[in-house]
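Objective 1.3, modelling of assemblies. Example input:
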Amino acid sequence: MEAAITIEKLSKSFGSTKALDELDLEVRVGEIHGLLGPNGAGKSTCLRVLLGLLRADAGTARLLGGDPWRDVEQLHRRLAYVPGDVTLWPTLTGGEVIDLLGRLRGGLNEKRRADLLKRFDLDPTKKARAYSKGNRQKVALIAALSSDVELLLLDEPTAGLDPLMDAVFREVITELRDQGRTTLLASHILSEVEALADRVSIIRDGRTVDVGSLADMRHLARVSISADLVGAPDGLTTMPGVHNLKVDGTHVEFIADPDSLDKVLMTLSSVGVTSLKSQPPSLEELFMRHYGEDGATTRVEEAVTR
Amino acid sequence: MSSLVGTGALVRLALRRDRILLPVFIVIVAAMVAASAYATAELYPTAESRATAVAVINTATSTLAMFGPIHDETSLGALATFKIGIMGAIALAVLSLILVVRHTRAEEETGRLEMLGATVVGRQAPLTAALLVAGGTSIVTGLVTGISMIAVGLPAGGSVVIGLGFACLGIAFAAVAALTAQLTKSARTASGMAGGVLGFSYLLRAIGDASAGNGLAWVSWLSPVGWWQKTRPFASDRWWMLALLLVFALAVCVVAYMLAARRDFAAGLLPERRGPAFASKSLGTPLALAWRLQRGTFAAWAVIFVLAGLVVGGLTSSVDDFLTSPQALEFIEKLGGVQSISDAFLAVELGFMGVFLSIFGMQAVLRLRSEESAMRAEPMLATAVSRITWALSHVTIAVVGTAVLALLMGLSAGATSAAQIGDSGQLGRVVVGALVQLPAVWVVTGIAVAAFGLAPKQIVIGWIALVGFVLLGEFGALFSLNQTVMDISPFAHTPRLPGGEFSLVPLVALTAIAAGLMAAGLGGFRRRDVG
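Predicted structure (tokens):
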């Protein structure tokens, strides 16, 4: 089956700023795909190219088997979009905005509209100018999620939502995935992507620096270890594959490369271990490795060669 | 006073944001007023020629309604400034009220003021800063205008009164905007209300001046614009009338500050109504949304056009009446007699209407750009709506809207005019006179569409073109410009009806140019990036 979205070497510049620099992306049908990157990485630009709002300078983008620039009307009947910056018509009510956008898309599911209004706890009779940021976001979400579409393009969809509504959002997206819908979720919120995404593409400066399932990335990633030893540690400082070592008497904390884990543990047990904690790095740590100074280059190179 | 902390910083911010708009406006107003006064003065070298002109002006109800009377028939300055003076003053009042709303309610509505409000900014600082900027602009414009008038050789006393009058009227309408900005949550509504006060004030003055013979002269005393006019620059130089404007400004400001101190941030005093939970059946197309967004503005324009039509049509007979004035008789005979003077008056008024129609068409099209900049085009274009369909929605409002407005004014002016002169055929003639304005109006609308599609960042081209056309039409002859230059304006090609010769060729040509401009704009929009 053809992927829902295929992007190859997509480039887009605004003046002298390169927003997208040979970006690659593949979103498979039926998955929730996280598009993860810091502010200014090119996430919104990527979505706007997919919506046919921006014309790419180079590279190819395919969306639901069509050309996002040429086949606008046919494609847009099959997708829904939540913009990153939700502004509504101040004199329309939330309910009117939801209906209008649904109708322009080719119809909405009245039952789901009612259900979502209830679950997101939104009053549809208020004028848009009276809504808070979170409530405007809810209007955009309900407008997008009320339509029976194959593909959802969401740009930082939970910005401004409180944790309770955040949880509702996650529930709804997961339900839709279980019904076979595809979602591209652009976000810089790691916990959100971690909780929802089946696969993740990490982008930085308009380039894809890593792609895979969260399991794949963990497998590649280092392990964070903290341990209490019987005596002073010996030989850890010089051991290859040990990073950020901190020694406090008999307590040690460090990050180890996966392939040096065996040697590290042998060294520790040779001293004698009284307690040991090891945990997979959070997405935060993954992120730091891609975007922080430490190790950034090596990881980028790895990602490109893979 | 701690509630004013940060005012200085906000003033600097406002001046930074308006660093181009303000100097350009000030220079244009001062230059226009001085240049036009100078050129008009050249036309009437002798006291005798001035007396004849003043006699005609003071007996024509239409000029009395538009510009007011001239109080000294020998004064060169009074004749030279009776038209441009009030136009400049009104322009400054409009700028002043826009400035205040722009730096108060508009900032509040977008939430930018909230960001500033969280820093060390006092509760009354934004309002104070906006008033200082608008007031300062008014004073500088008045000063520069006064000085330029002295520089072109007009008497210093009257020049100073005109300059001070500009400043005071600007300050008065800054105060009005300060008040309306407290009443409503929407910046658009706030400027609309302040603009309405200005329009109403102008209307009261027009009624008072035009109906002085019927004992209605006192009506002008209800109007700040009337007070401004009663300074009678170059005639009696009653500068003390300006105190009335300043007292008015002060009183309105006090109310505005009281309201501002009592309301919550971002709240208005007029209550926010709830609306329907579901969209009506009809709200399901881009055109329906465009109509929904513009119908309020359109309705206001429609009311103004119908009223203006009634006034213009109703004045038809008064235009004939002033034939009784002996000086005017000779003047008018030269122009072609009774019927033609009445027709010429209608044709001129309908020509004015064409310019105002263009303003409606222009701002209807510019909605496209403001929707795009406000990121509201994006969710529309992410649905199954093509770019052309979306863009055409607002263009349709502009094209059809201008046509309906022209028809409304044609009908109301035609009906009253026909009743006045007792000739039912007049209705048709006036309606045709109104409708022939449309091709030129659509050319201006087309320029706005082209700018939107091809040069969205330079969208202001549309306004510049319109202002340029108006200046060519109003002052081209005054400065004896070459006819080829004056023909750049589409309005120059509109047949002057009723009374003039109807010719189809320019109308078809203008319509074709308008269609070409619109097609170019839409084609450009289809190819460019959105956002």
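The first strand of chain A starts at residue 5 and ends at 14.
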